[in-house]
Amino acid sequence: MTSGRLGVKSWEMAAFPLCSLPNGVILSVFDQGIVSLSNFLTTVIAARTLAPDQFGIFSLFYATLLILSGIQNALITGPIRVLGVQKTGGETTSYFHAQIYLQLILGIVISLISVTVLIASASAKSSTGISFSLCVFFVQLQELARVILATRLSLVSLLLLDVLTHSARIVLVMMLAMGDELTTSSLFLAIGIPCAITASIFLRLHRMEGMQLKVLLMRALENWIFGRWSLVETFAYMVSSQFYFYITALMVSIESVGALNAVLSVLNLVNVLLSGVMGFAIPIARQRLLNVSFNAWKSWLKRVGIALTMCVLVLWIVITVLARPLISFTFSDFYAEYAYLIQIIGFSYVFRSVNTVLIAAYRTAELPQVGSSAQLASATLSLLIAYPLIKTFGVGGAALGFVVTQIAWTLVYMYYLRIGSLSENSVMQRVI
Prior knowledge:
By secondary structure, the protein is mostly helical. The chain has one domain (8-431). It contains 17 helices and no strands. The chain is globular and about 55 Å long. It starts with 7 loop residues before the first helix and ends with a helix.
């Protein structure tokens, strides 16, 4: 991508040709692999350097970071993945400009609220609260750049952006660890600073033009109409998944939260596959629905779903067999005692692979409220079962909760399929 004023060509210059679908999938998965490897190495270094209780605190903060990223996904990046695909000509420039302005506003609001709540509630030291809030702002800004590039299928530029970001992060984290300076506060700065640098480069290459307030409000309303259901979904997701981190910390121990995070980090290989493939598959699905036919859209998602589910099943079996030595070698013998959690949580990923494709189908068909219904159902169920599960099985109960969540989602998605929400007539009436 070249510098200069943002125009249609600058967004599309590195766009990956749609005829190269296999190469596109490989690039997308490879890019997600870089991101996930960076997250994994960050977690490993933190677990090996910090005391178990401090690593548990970091894990709670990181769970909060994911929740706040869900808000961004609902209001900014989620709508971009679908609505940004259909923007053409000069509208492309205005559309993505508006999204950048909206993200800057959202990021400032979220960061200010975060630091105020953390410091006022004495939940963290002021230095940790400030570093965490800065990290949230810059991580979200860099994520916006990633989503814009992915939506435009500018996969080479996306890959370069992530290589720069995450190689710098790992270098910083390793330097802090080797210098015995790694703390929860410095760790969040090490995560946020590379994001700040690469996001700034992205914005510099695509210099911003003025934006009329009415245009900005129009785009914000467009995002809200599409993303309001995803916002409900975000809070429901918090209850049905991240909620278990907080309950485990209260009912079991802060060290158990760290162990749960370590197990999820090992299983992150599955997330690489899911996120990488779907990051490429969703724009393709939307384009096929808008520009080819309903059957082309349906066939594409069906093939993606079958392939993903089979791959996830194989990965789960392999990781389960190697669980204990893998955790012991990667983290420590302390966390290896929790290796049995991999068998339980890994099983939930089989359902998650199916759910990932189904929710992509509903969103590209402009039915994001279905995802909200699934999340609300699982959230309600989690509120009912979280306490007895963790009370009875300890941290293993939290792992069982992840399985119940995914099964609940699958059942809701199947219900909407059964009543014809994704029938040809129903879908085409909405998208035409």
